[in-house]
Structure formats: C-alpha cells, structure tokens
C-alpha cells in the first residue's frame, strides 16, 4: 500500500497480469491499462508460464474525496 490519496496506473506491455485490489481480482492482457486507489491493499501476479512486462506509475496524494 502507498500513502493516503495515492493513485497507481499499470499498463501491460506483454503477456497477462492479474491485479488484486482490496480483494477484487482483475485480469489484464497485453495493451490493457488500469488506474486504482493505491492506498488500498493490492498486488500483481503472473499466473502464466510466459514472462509479463508492465509499467506501474504511482502518483502520491492526488485523489480527492
């Protein structure tokens, strides 16, 4: 988790990626992108046998209530 108000964006460059945010699972493929509240519990998984490449960008303190 990151500091309160943080946002994270991930872009899948190659392969497949699973993102789990606050207990909810999202399956992403090549070319997919996602933005989410990064101060929630989250992690990424590669469940396949092929390598996955993705970019993750975290912006601290941007979310407003």
What tags apply to this protein structure?
single chain, 65 residues, mainly beta, three-stranded antiparallel β-sheet
What does this structure look like?
- By secondary structure, this protein is mainly β.
- It has one domain (7-58).
- 0% of the residues lie in helices and 52% in strands.
- It is globular, with a radius of gyration of 12 Å.
- The mean pLDDT is 92.
Strand content: over 45%
Terminal residue distance? 18 Å
- For the secondary structure, the number of strands is 6
Question: If helices are DSSP runs of H or I spanning 4 or more residues, what is the number of helices?
Answer: 0
Report strand order across the widest sheet: 4-1-6
Query: Can you tell me the overall shape?
Result: globular
Radius of gyration: 12 Å
* SSE sequence, one letter per element: EEEEEE
Layout: helices, strands, pairs:
Layout: E1 7-14, E2 17-21, E3 24-28, E4 33-37, E5 42-45, E6 53-59
Antiparallel strand pairs: 1-4, 1-6, 2-3, 2-5
Question: Summed up, what is this model?
Answer:
The protein is mainly β and 65 residues long.
